[in-house]
Specification:
Length: about 270
């Protein structure tokens, strides 16, 4: 991949008129589709956003023309085609599971009736349950469970913004919403209806005093929805937050640990 060329085209959009440069942008999307590159990746310093890849995605929309696509009797009219050849990819897709071209779906993934957008990365063994959505550029790790109705936000602009990241082994309960670049650590458990934005308070209440953070759920945390009181001119009202009420036990395997966590803390999934 020619990162320098993509940056040059981004800085001077007139270059997109040239077919060779359009081909360079399309090559990046093809690499995304095959999992050869990613919008964000983990390294020894944490997660790094590959801004130039997001720039290529944005420019890809500019060079694509509207087309009619057919999937059996269903018709779509859009700029981005759907992924194909799921059998050869080793991915199980239940009707109406949809993944857009330019997203990467690894072997062993199950897509129930759900939606995966361009730039997203869904790693092996993950379940995307019914009506769950994986937004543009969201990064989902191995053996993750996205329960029914989960919404992972997408992000293309600004290009420097971090995508939503769900790390390996996490369990995201029904109707959870994770947006604005929030990262959920490895093997964490979110109970049903947890909403996490960049400004949501994530409060650890397992100790004698609460410990507050934003934007990151630590590994193995068990999280439920909560509220805290905030005073406004009109009075005091409950504001949504997330409460860390415990951790998965390291001494047990993940399946047992998850069941134990749900029983111990009596949380809904």
């Amino acid at each position: 991949m020619n990162q320098q060329l993509i940056e040059s085209i981004w800085d001077n959009r007139d270059l997109l008129k040239e077919q060779a440069n359009q081909d360079a942008v399309a090559e990046v999307i093809e690499a995304l589709d095959k999992g050869k590159i990613r919008v964000a990746q983990e390294n020894e310093f944490g997660w790094t956003v590959n801004e130039w890849v997001k720039k290529a995605v944005l420019m890809y929309f500019g060079i694509r023309k509207m087309e009619t696509f057919h999937a059996g009797p269903m018709e779509f009219y859009d700029k981005i085609p759907l992924k194909k050849d799921f059998e050869s990819l080793g991915v199980r897709v239940v009707p109406h599971g949809i993944a857009r071209y330019g997203s990467y779906i690894s072997r062993g993934v199950i897509l129930m009736p759900s939606y995966v957008n361009i730039g997203a990365y869904v790693d092996e063994g993950t379940l995307v349950d019914t009506w769950a959505t994986v937004g543009s550029c969201a990064q989902v790790g191995k053996n993750v469970h996205l329960s029914g109705g989960v919404g992972l936000g997408g992000v293309l602009e600004p290009v420097q913004a971090a995508p939503v990241i769900i790390e390996d082994g996490a369990f995201i309960g029904s109707r959870c919403i994770v947006v604005e670049g929030v990262r959920v650590g490895k093997e964490a458990v979110l109970g049903a209806n947890v909403v996490l934005t960049a400004s949501t308070k994530i409060i650890d209440v397992t100790g004698e005093t609460p410990h507050e953070r934003k934007g990151f759920v630590p590994e193995r945390s068990v999280v439920i929805p909560g509220t805290y009181q905030k005073t406004y001119p009109a009075g005091s009202f409950g504001v949504s937050c997330a409460l860390i009420i415990g951790q998965r036990k390291a001494s047990t395997d993940l399946k047992t640990s998850l069941n134990d966590a749900l029983r111990e803390f009596n949380i809904s999934i």
